[in-house]
Amino acid sequence: MLCVAIVDDELEHINILASYLNRLGTEKKFPVKPVSFSDAVDFLTKYQPVYDMVLMDIEMPYITGLEAAEQLRALDPKVPLVFVTSYAQYAPRGYEANASGYLVKPVSYFSFYTLMDKVLRVSARDRDMELLIHARDGVKVLPHSEIIYIEISGHSLKYVTERGIFEASGSFTALESTLPSGSFVRASNSFLVHLKFVRGTSGNSVYVEGGTEIPISRARKKEFMIRLMRYFGDRV
Questions:
Q1: Which residue, 104, 127, 150, sits at the end of a domain?
Q2: Which 3 state secondary structure label does DSSP give 119?
Q3: Integer Cα distance of 152 and 130 in angstroms
Q4: What is the CATH number of the domain that holds 33?
């Protein structure tokens, strides 16, 4: 079952999104459970990590959707978040909260279906794929979705993940071939970055979740930026 939270202060918009979700479930042949909240404070107060996705309005009383998103990420860093707004200029700020995309009101079913299809595919891909490594303290299974970046030094590989750091021996080239090229991109000969965790770039550096600065080599910068734009473009 796909459980989706709809956070919007206008009942009309809640009903539209709920009807779109039910139609999507019928067409894709899976059950859907929309759960609605009329304001972000109520949503955050009652929040439990049971949702497969959150659809959040930006213009709401008490606190805005952008402010609520910051608090949501403290509670649940992973749940896919889609903003619904009347103003497209809010979209860039939405990606600061690791949003999966945004919908502009009035929302058409075509735009809704297109974005939901992409978000669900990305979510399923990140959830289902895992990497088996022979770490120094034993065999570890690392979901792709938790790997922030990988660093190589000689024949030593360091996996920096949301759960901690794991070290193993191996070939960087062989490892790269086992990871999805649409999500993992070399920033240099020493770093392989998961684009999902990129929080910004400046000059010849990329900043990932946690504030770590990773250098981008001059030879790889153009390709890295193209792949980064393509990755987030697929989520809009």
A1: 127
A2: helix
A3: 19
A4: 3.40.50.2300
Residue 92: CB atoms within 10 A of its CB come to 10
| Distance (Å, whole) CA 102 – CA 84 | 6
Per-residue pLDDT 10s for the chain (236 aa) are 788 999 999 999 999 999 999 999 999 888 899 999 999 999 999 998 888 899 999 989 899 899 999 999 888 888 899 999 887 665 555 556 678 888 999 999 999 999 998 888 777 655 557 788 888 788 888 888 889 999 998 889 999 998 899 999 888 777 887 787 778 999 999 999 999 899 999 999 999 988 999 999 999 999 999 988 888 765 44
Residues 6+ apart with CB under 8 A from 121: none
C-alpha separations of 80 from 66, 99, 198 in Å: 14, 7, 16
Please tell me whether residues 38 and 71 are part of one structural domain. Answer: yes
Select from 127, 159, 175 the last residue of a domain.
127
Are 194 and 122 within one domain? no
Q: How many CB atoms lie within 10 A of CB 63?
A: 15
Q: What angle do CA 59, 31, 37 make, to 5 degrees?
A: 25
Total domain count, the chain: 2
Handedness of CA 216, 222, 224, 225 (dihedral sign): positive
pTM above 0.90, yes or no: no
Alpha-carbon 91 to chain mean position: 14
> What distance in Å separates the CA atoms of residue 126 and residue 98, rounded to the nearest whole number?
15
**Which domain does 53 fall in, by range?**
2-127
Both 91 and 161 in one domain: the answer is no
Question: Are residues 32 and 72 located together in one domain of the fold?
Answer: yes
